[in-house]
């Protein structure tokens, strides 16, 4: 399955992009924790593009039997920066999440203009079978 959509260059477009990705991935048979993880990573990649890059922003998903690949293209050549922010920082974790949770990721500059594509893949065998709850999660016990 291959699908693509244009994203408005506004942070208000991140939630609709998440919903779109969730629907396309579910239609392709991705479910459970892998679906949740992919949607989280889509959210981080799209947020990075709309906050730090130039339009146009395009979101692509490609699912096959082995892996899911997500690409976010934007109109800026600057590559995302992998940071390790302190716990008190309000942001700066998006690329770190992609780096730590995706099977692999990278950036492809477009030779014909000043744009790039940030991509990540999740190999289906690498996907967690369940997501452990945070030790800080509130329970209603």
Core attributes:
single chain, 5 strands, alpha+beta, globular, 141 residues
Summarize the structure.
The chain has helices at residues 14-27, 32-52, 94-101; strands at residues 2-7, 57-63, 67-74, 104-109, 116-123. The chain is of the alpha+beta class and 141 residues long. Helix 1 packs antiparallel against helix 2 and helix 2 (32-52) packs antiparallel against helix 3 (94-101).
Fold and architecture overview:
- The protein has 141 residues and is α+β, with helices and mostly antiparallel strands.
- 30% of the residues lie in helices and 25% in strands.
- Strands 1-2-3-5-4 form a 5-stranded antiparallel sheet, with helices on one face.
- The chain is globular, with a radius of gyration of 15 Å.
- The C terminus is likely disordered.
